[in-house]
Amino acid sequence: MNKFKVPKFEVPEYIIGALEFLCPPEDLTVSQWAEKYRILDQKSSAMPGPWRNSVTPYLKGVMDEFNNYSTDEIVFCKCTQIGGTEIELNVLGYIAMQDPAPTMVVYPTDVLGESTSVNRILPLFNASPRLKEKLDQKRSGKNEIQFDNMFISVAGSNSPSGLASKPIRWLLMDEIDKYPPSSKKEADPISLATERTKTFRSNRKIYKTSTPTLRTGQIWKAKEACDIERHYFVPCPHCGEMIELKFKQIRWPDKEDGLSYQDRAEQAYYVCQECGSILTDADKPAMLQRGEWRDVRADTVFAKKIAFWINTLYSPFVRYSDIALEFMESKDDPEKLQNFTNSWLAEPWEDTKVKTSAELVLERCTTVPEFVLPEWTKLVTGGVDVQETCLYWSIRAYGDFITSQKVAHGQALSFDEIERVMNLELRKPDGTVIIPQLVLMDSGDQTDMVYDFCIRNSDWCLPCKGTAERQSHYSLSTVNKAGSSANGMTLVLVDGGKYKDMIAGRLQKPVGAKGAWMVHRDCDIEYAEQVTAEQKVVVRTAGGRDQLRWMPKASHAANHYLDAEVYSFAAADIMGVRQLYLQPERAPDPVAKKQAPADSSRDWFSGTGGGW
Does domain 358-590 correspond to CATH entry 3.40.50.300? Predict the structure, then answer.
């Protein structure tokens, strides 16, 4: 037996500190780090305590893509409340402990950035002991969090100065579809922030996440531009096939008397698209655990940009009945339906009610030839779009319930030609003659000439001007031009967007249907293309709000006949087209308008009896 005692040797703390400093970081992925070190605090989480990947297993694949050395950019297109921000927080903690480097997090606004910094990011570091010891509390603030060997800059996309002058290796951008567009002085925020990563081109990581808005939105374009796109597949508990959860597979009872939306939604279930078996909410946790990300599109072998897409059906916190109820309560309201499409289904919004095409217009041709009125005609109006070199005109017949048909259209090279066209005697099959009762002419171009023309023809023509976002479809104003003979003349302000909505909606009705919007027998393709040259898209206003507006489908697309039809529709509205069904069938006096004096526009206007 050895009686010698081994002397105790205490290692000085400075040596221990030096050894810990020289010790390489643990070999962990982002998801492994999160499960080992991330602590969810009570202030910002509904499930405080240690992070568990098993709660939201679909986030694991997205997080671990940050550890793929060949991946340069990660795009996460998602529904709301699925965990996109939690990925950011886990990555920030991983960076601070495992791979410190200059980092920037960009939010839509400065205010949101500061709020997230105070309520989410700083609590992340304070809740986890290993992270807290690395945080420099004294030098850290809302917009910049300091550590001994790195910093995290928190910026708003609405502040270009906050995105500049800092070399960044890790760039995380949240809700990029809410970022403002580029200005005349600065590039767009995404481009400005990406410029900061040039110094770390070989090992940078760029993360973009957002709920989609439109196909032209930033997140959808970023997803489509990626080399690989992945969706989450889960096994069916009955047939074992890997399936992608899709909204169309959720079923609930048909509408029955006395059965509310809530009652119907509570009976919702999922039908496997492979075997037809019924899946319930109780099946979802096990399915998620065994799920995996699979490539649904791969454009190159050497992929550097990876996209992940997921909808709310995968959320462990959302039941199938919640989704069914939300849809039923949203389906009849375009704004609510857009929110459901974007925030629940993670899909871009396309308003099929206002979707038009030239082919659809040509499908609305009737058997009535050009310059002949349909037998149901009660009112005829015209619209003129004035351009620098010519005038585009359209004449349209209206009947009960705003049923309408284009009678003729064309291009005029002079105002005299417009005067001749708009005074043609148009006949119904029974021989009844009707002349266009009111024509609206655009005064945005060649304004003085338009005013002079309208003064000369004040008994049947009024100037108009396009305007947006009015409470009514049109309103009546007066020309305010001192010294002009047109001063005080009636000016019609037309909300073109509202009339384009009506045209697009009525264009969906088949030929002959009540309220249909039709064209004559020999309608040409040029007219059809111009009438459908615009589409409704989300546009961000100066105040930062997203609004649906009609915009050209392509740059410099001709839309002159569409404007002419809008003015014709507004003219019909002024003449009481919505009340035509209350009037008895009678032919208007074609000579009546000829009897009005040329200088009595306001007398004629006030004496029409059309409810003006």
Answer: no
> How confident is the model over 263-293, as pLDDT tens digits?
999 999 999 999 999 999 999 999 999 999 9
- pTM metric for this prediction: 0.62
Would you say how long the chain is, in residues? 612
Which residue, 304, 452, 435, is CA-closest to 380?
435
> Mean pLDDT for the chain?
87
Split at pLDDT 50, 70, 90, the class of 19 is: low
For residue 314, give Cα distances in angstroms to 46, 62, 516: 18, 14, 42
Contact 584/571 with Cβ under 8 angstroms?
Answer: no
Q: Which two tokens stand for residue 48?
A: 């405080």
**Closest C-alpha among 203, 196, 211, 232 to residue 73:** 203
| CATH no. of 27-225 | 3.40.50.300
Region of 537 (left: φ > 0; alpha: ψ -120 to 50; beta: rest) is beta
| Element of type H or E holding 495 | strand 490-495
- How far is the first Cα of the chain from the last one, in angstroms, to the nearest whole number? 118
Return the structure tokens found at 248: 């169309």
Residue 606 in this model has a pLDDT that exceeds 80: no
Average pLDDT over residues 159-180: 86
